Each structure stands twice: as C-alpha cells, then as structure tokens.
Amino acid sequence: xxxxxxxxxxFLAGAALGAGVVAGARLLPEAAAQTHxxxxxxxxxxxxxxxxxxxxxxAFLNDADAETVAAFTERLMPGAPGKPGxxxxxxxxxxxxxxxxxYADLQDFYRRGLxxxxxxxRKAYGEPFAKLEARQQDEVIKALxxxxxxxxxxxxxxxxxxxxxxxxxxxxxxxxxxxxxKDFAGWRLIGFPGAQPLFTPxxxxxAQAFTREPIAALQGRA
Length: 222
What we know:
Elements: H1 3-19, H2 29-35, H3 63-76, H4 86-89, H5 91-99, H6 107-125, H7 134-145, H8 157-173, H9 185-190, H10 201-205
Helix pairs in contact: 2-8, 5-8, 7-8
C-alpha cells in the first residue's frame, strides 16, 4: 500500500471517529449542501435484508456503473492485508441499496456523475475510470476533489466527489443492517465495539480499547 493510500485511509477512518460512529447511516451536511437535495433526502436508508444479486448490486446500479462505483470507492478506502477496504466492507452494496431506497432522489445525480466521470477519463486517458491503473484513478479523483476535472457540468466534479466520499464513509462505518460494513469490517478497523447489551463497572473504568465479543448491532435485533 502506498503512502497515498495510507493517508487516504487514515483520513476517512479519522473522520469516522471524529464524527462519532452511529448505529444508523446519515447523510452528512456537506454532501446535502453540494447536491442541493431537499431535507427529506437526508434520512437514513431503510434496513437492508438482502441485495439483488450475489455481486452486491442490482437494486439500482447496472453492471457498468457498479464496476465504476466499486473501483472509485476502493480508491477512496483502499484495502490492505489485515485492513479491510471498501470492497471488503460491501460499500457498493450499501450505495446500491441506498439509491434504490432513501437516496432515490440522487439516482439522476449518480447517473450523470458517473457518465461525466467516464467522459473525463476517456478524454484524459482513453479508458473509462474502472479500466485505469490505480495511479491514474488517483489522479482523476484528485482532479475531481479540486474541481479541475473537465466534462462536468451537473453535478459538478467536487459535488460528485464529496457525495461519493460521504457515501463511502457511510458504507464503511454505518450499522451493517444498511447493507455495508460487512462482517463489521469498518467497526473493527477503527476499534468500535458496536452496541453492547451490558458494560461492566470494569469496562467503564478501563482506559484500554474495548474488544469483547460479540459485537452487537441493529441487525441482531431486526
């Protein structure tokens, strides 16, 4: 894993800890402002019972768009030996289910954003985003983040980047009932124990990280 990957992972994990990991997913204010969605769109996605196919998409995303989203989110949160990334945590499944449910008003935002992303990549590199090398994908993401990517009108490059980054964080760290954070990958990554039925006096007084199993979640009570 490159220093760039480590820095990106550290930023997202640190942001999750700084914001506080919650049981339910929520759309962060930054993304809501960037996408100009009405307040009703900021509600949490409905609990997910299953995805539409074995590859973690099919509720909304087609195969080509799913391949792009999977590649994009993995570059935002790259995996490494012993450290789960977006693919490991099922972020694609989370985004697919959310776009078919509570985030349905962002469907056109994603369709147009993904089309503009591939148009920019084809013009700059001759290939769609999913076919680029990791280094090239990082260059594209940096251009989006800085608002320097051509071919974008609506959504803007920065709005698309900010929204996908927010949804990647949600898919990594929200309760698994929403379709991401598979096998508690995100929670284990940052040492979050999840909801526990009981904390002992010793637990409350300890200065050490809480690691007792099992991790309980909303899914366990669904």
